[in-house]
Structures are given as C-alpha cells and as structure tokens.
Amino acid sequence: EDVTQIILNLKKLTLKSIAADEKLAEIDVEGPATVTAGDLKVDDEVQILNPDQYIATVAEGAHLQMTVAIKQGRGYVPADQNKSDDMPIGVVPVDSLFSPIEKVNYQVEGTRVGRNNDYDKLTMEVWTDGSITPNDALSFGAKILTEHLNVFMNTNLETEFTDVMVEKEDT
After folding, report:
1. CA–CA separation, 45 and 51 (whole Å)
2. Which UniProt keywords apply (predicted)?
3. N vs C: which end of the chain shows fewer Cβ within 10 Å?
4. pLDDT tens-digit profile of 69-122?
C-alpha cells in the first residue's frame, strides 16, 4: 500500500477513549506481516472496537513504525485543523470523524389509540459503530437538541398548559 491507502485504512478505525487529553498509540512491525488495528499499542484509557480492521501489509525485510494520535472530539474536524506549526516533518494530519452514528432511518405513520385514529407513530432505527448503543445515541441527541431549544425558552413566562393539554373523551 501507499501512504494514502494506509491513511484510508486508519480512518476506518473505531476507537473509544476515556482520556481527557490526547493519547498516542504505536505500531512497530517487522515484515512479513499483516498489520491490523489490534497491533496498535494503546493504554487502558483507549479501547480498539474493531481490532481486525486491516491497516497494511509489511513485506519481508521491511519495517513499519508509526505513531497515531488519539483524542476525543465531536462532529467532523478537517485535517488542516488537526495540524499544528510545531509538528515535525513526516507527520501526516488526517481529518477526524467523531460521530458514532453510521445510519439513521425514521418513519412516521398514522396510528389509532382507542377509537381515535388521528395520532402519529414515530419509528426510529439507529446504527452505530459500536462505541455507543443506539439507545444511548438517541438519548444523547435528544439531550443536545433540548439544550439548543432551551435558548428559546422564556423562563419568566408562566404558561398554563391545562388548556393546551386536554385529555379527549371517547365518543
């Protein structure tokens, strides 16, 4: 593989870090060998969730040594923001995708409660990379959304919800 292919393989790593600061993981392999994520030497604060992820093949007589920086984050960070002026020559900054969500699907369909059929049913499907459960991801997303919407809440206004939230009688 060339450097570009190795970087693309490294970007497929699924890691979970509980460390507040940046951690370094190392790979030091003599050929011939197939290098996988399980070959990363990490400490107790970093967990490799896909240790079988292929990284590279090292030919006989060759030596592969690299250091990988691991840190926590949110969302997407482009490679130029992962670069600093004091990085030595040979360091290749890579973009980071911190989202554990792989796919989301939702469906809204009409449903019936008792004799009333004017209710909606929301079905959500969430796929993750294994670093968080789908239920926890949905709960965390709801918490973030709530925090964003709290900006619009006027806490000085006292509203009576009794007129809005009235239980309908069956007829």
Report:
1. 16
2. DNA-directed RNA polymerase, Nucleotidyltransferase, Transcription, Transferase
3. C
4. 999 998 899 999 988 888 888 888 899 999 999 999 999 999 988 888 889 999
Q: Are 22 and 70 in contact (CB under 8 A)?
A: yes
- Residue type, position 97, single letter: L
Residue 63 to residue 59: CA distance in whole angstroms: 8
| Domain presence at residue 161 | no
**Tokens standing for 142?**
């709801």
On whether the pTM is more than 0.70, the answer is yes
Residue 148 lies inside a defined structural domain of this protein: yes
Instruction: Report the distance separating Cα 144 and Cα 85, nearest Å.
Output: 33
Cβ atoms of 119 and 111 within 8 Å: the answer is yes
- Its domain, for residue 25, covers 3-97
